[in-house]
Amino acid sequence: MAFLQNAWYCVGWSSDLADKPKSIKVLGKELLLYRCADGTAVAVSNVCPHRFAPLDCGRIVDDQIECPYHGLRFDRTGACSLNPHGSGTIAPNARLQSWPLVERAGALWAWMGDPALADENEIVQYDYVTDSSWTGFTGYLHLDVDYQVVVDNQLDLTHSTYLHAKTVGAPRQETAEGRDRREYRFHTADGIIHSDAVRRDTPPAPIFRLFQDRPLGDIHAPMSLYLPSNLILDIATTDPGAPKSSGSRLPSAHFITPETETSCHYFFAFFRNERIEDARITARMEELVRHAFVEEDAPMIQKCFDRMGGKDLFELKPVILETDAAAVYARRALAKLIRDEQLKNADA
Fold first, then answer.
1. CA 41: distance to chain centroid?
2. I need a labelling partner for 299 at 20 to 30 A (CA). Which of 98, 107, 144, 256 fits?
3. Domain architecture of the chain: domains with CATH
4. What is the pLDDT of residues 258-276, one digit of tens each?
């Protein structure tokens, strides 16, 4: 499987990177993350070019990473700055790869492709994570599946009614013929893939009952995918017929970062705009979300992926439903971006 290289990928929450170096594998490459004395976050390769020791087992000295095996030091650009042995000669190939790393709204973003093409303005917006008028939590989940299967799951939220009925899903509503009463709209704009759903005059999902008192209302659930794999869901519950902006809001971020062809990192954030001073609500929200992800989503996604037997989704000729429009479009759009990138690199 090929990955899109020229893209921003979330590699951690800012709060998780303190005074110790950390490692994370992204697109099959081992990255080392650490902070300099001024707080600047750095991303370089996690393997010493001498004897291939893991640098995350080393220590930070004067904004440099020191190899735990033989003491070579590398600066934030990846250049070897110290060879403590013999004459101290530094070999020309004593260098780590480095990647642009940006800290934005409480998260760390690495650009995995050509550094000259890195544009911070392309990082998805989710300012509620660091805005004091919101409250919530961030989290992380590791999944042993192809990251595109996780993106599929998020772009089609019809599963929430069935899989998450007791946690984050809206109650089932059916017509006399047994069809779901959800209104669905798929569209694209400026390269963003939108999968929007609305339920009218319905009881709130269990997670919304924690901080709002409407017995019935409209549930607006617009999901936006920023290719390759960063999603924003801006759920709101409103009085029946009222605009989405007037409602109780629960925006969430879902950043899916490929680790390998068969594993990925899932960084998530859930925030709310009401009763933000009540820490007990936040704790209960986190319990529901973690249960939904760990006990409901993860096992189902894993079982589906295992049954795919390592084959591409379209190779298996799956049944396509109307509500699969966004996920199907996303897979094809991403495949085209990857092909175009590979052709451009081949011609360079």
1. 19
2. 107
3. 21-105 (2.102.10.10), 127-340 (3.90.380.10)
4. 999 999 999 999 999 999 9
